[in-house]
Amino acid sequence: MAPASSLKHQTYLTLNDGNRIPQFGMGVYLVPDGEPTETAVAEALRLGYRHIDTAHAYQNERSVGRAVKASGIDRSDIWITTKLWPSEYGEGATAAAIDKMLERLDTDYIDLLLLHQQFGDYKGAWKDMERAVAAGKVRSIGISNFESANLEDLMAAATIKPSVNQVECHPYYPQDELRERMAPYGTLIESWYPLGHGDAGLLDEPLFAELGTKYGKTPAQVILRWHIQKGNIIFPKSTNPEHIAANMDIFDFALTEAEMERVAALANGRRFYNVSLADQEKNLGAWAPAD
């Protein structure tokens, strides 16, 4: 449980490379490029968000970069995470892709760069990512959606161990087994679908209504608070100003250890993205994001 003195403030986690990452941020997956992304990011930054999660595949990096520039906030105070697509994997190809990414974001460095998927020449890409860290173009590097044996394959080849692994994670699927596999490397969980893709069954769990009543919070806020205390890095997506504000209003209360255990008991193995590895690889290989 977080100490009372820190409950009203953004929390930070120290990665295995020593960098401190804001534990809470905003994601822009499926937010259209242009005004929708710029407006949402601007509002989030105005409210105190300091971590924005994007990706080349989201096709809105330029809008994120413009919003960050326009905010007037010192660049060093904003953490930008973005991701490489498998079509950009491989020595040489990844180095070129990183330079293009820096141009799209209009920034001198990327705080956290991830391999978006576990297919293709991810080991060649990782070598270029390590070189980008040495060159100062990237601060931290990590992975996303590595849950198969490819995780250990990359770990064995990596000089710099992945700082995070961004995966589906929520109370129904808390990723405890994956967390244990990554513990020897100090790799942290980042959660996409932190609210179970907005699943009504998860949000309507009686436990979250009960805890929400106790703390004066919504079920969604209780779930997000659970993530924070679990040690996950989260970035719920919204373009609604009220929801953007509500999502961050989770630092003035804390669940007890007993309440955390009650949430843990909800784990049932249910995932909301159920596509086989073979189908994922087939589908992803047929598409590449535009520059």
Q: How much helical structure, as a percent, in the residues?
A: 25-40%
Q: Give, in spatial order, the strands making up the sheet with the most strands.
A: 3-4-5-6-7-8-9-10
Radius of gyration: 18 Å
Q: Detail the poorly predicted runs.
A: 1-7
Rounded mean pLDDT score: 94
Main beta sheet: 8 strands, parallel
* Total separate domains: 1
Q: Give the CA-based shape.
A: globular
CATH top level is Alpha Beta
The CATH superfamily bears the name NADP-dependent oxidoreductase domain
> What share of the residues does DSSP label as strand, in percent?
5-15%
End-to-end gap: 43 Å
Looking at CATH, which topology would you report?
A: TIM Barrel
Query: From the helix content, strand content and strand pairing, which structural class follows?
Result: alpha/beta
CATH architecture verdict: Alpha-Beta Barrel
Order of helices and strands: EEEHEHEHEHEHEHEHHHEHHH
The number of helices is 12
Number of strand elements:
10
Provide tags for this entry:
single chain; 291 residues; alpha/beta; TIM Barrel; eight-stranded parallel beta sheet; two-stranded antiparallel ribbon; 12 helices; 10 strands; 40% helix; 14% strand; globular
